[in-house]
Design goal:
The protein is mainly alpha-helical. It has a single domain, classed as 3 helical TM bundles of succinate and fumarate reductases (Up-down Bundle), CATH 1.20.1300. Helices cover 68% and strands 3% of the residues. Strand 1 and strand 2 form a beta hairpin. Helix 1 packs parallel to helix 8 and helix 5 crosses helix 7.
């Protein structure tokens, strides 16, 4: 099979931006897990720590994240159109791997995640969905200063059945996307072969499952009344 250098380049850019997002999702989960109290002051202290970073760093990281998401979506759409146009899969290394539900539906799980991220940013970053519970408008004391009540905002959101339901659904989608995406990264980079591929698939699925369980624990424990504001 003849692969053009531009299609390999696009696939590699997709793989690298995808893994950068996996890294973000891992760090974001570690930060969010402070809601369970392992950090003195909980998620309010964590959010305050992030927001006290110099403004150019905050804006710079957000712009890099935005660029990564845009590149990933742009090349994802292009590759899907190419593949559906009858061209074979553009992996740097040929694989005998079977198609799965997750691998066949990457464009749909990716699109659902993009919609979820817009909703999520409107809810917790821009705080416009339920303005009455917005953290920025409800300050609480922390180490002798007043800070936004992120804990109160997140707890108020997940007490609502529909919000928790949307998040659990989004996390199932994230699991499906990553269970294929992580192993696909190794394949695209040419770092897997027919012998190591089954192990890489299992490890990728395990990481995706760990992220799924970590994230769903937050809405589920709040909705069940175990974690309170
Ligand atoms: C239970 C699940 C989640 C909770 C409780 C949660 C919580 C939050 C909160 C509180 C913020 C605002 C941070 C701040 O500005 O202080 C935020 C921002 C964000 N979240 Fe999540 N999140 C969850 C899942 C996710 C997932 C699965 C993704 C990605 C697929 C994600 C992507 C983002 C992004 C991109 C931001 C903006 C980061 C920034 O402000 O620079 N979140 N999240």
């Amino acid at each position: 099979m003849q692969l053009t250098s531009s299609s390999i380049g696009r696939k590699i850019l997709m793989a690298i931006t995808g893994q950068a997002m996996v890294l973000f999702v891992v760090v974001h989960l570690l930060g969010n897990s402070s809601i369970f109290g392992w950090l003195n002051g909980g998620i309010n202290a964590y959010a305050e720590h992030l927001h006290s970073l110099p403004l150019p760093i905050i804006i710079g990281v957000r712009l890099i994240l935005l660029a990564i998401v845009c590149v990933h979506i742009w090349f994802g759409i292009q590759l899907t159109i190419e593949n559906r146009g009858g061209r074979p899969q553009q992996y740097a290394v040929k694989s005998t791997q079977k198609a799965t539900f997750a691998s066949e539906n990457m464009i749909w799980t990716g699109s659902l995640l993009a919609i979820f991220i817009v909703y999520h940013l409107l809810q917790f970053t821009f705080q416009v969905i339920n303005p009455e519970t917005a953290a920025l408008k409800n300050l609480v004391p922390l180490h002798s200063e007043m800070v936004p009540n992120v804990q109160g905002m997140v707890v108020a959101a997940f007490k609502n059945f529909f919000v928790s339901f949307i998040y659990v659904g989004a996390m199932v989608t994230l699991f499906l996307h990553l269970s294929h995406g992580i192993q696909s990264f190794f394949q695209t980079m040419g770092w897997s072969n027919d012998k190591s591929q089954p192990l890489i698939i299992r490890l990728g699925t395990l990481v995706a499952l760990g992220l799924f369980l970590g994230y769903v624990t937050i809405p589920l424990t709040i909705f069940a009344g175990i974690l309170k504001g």
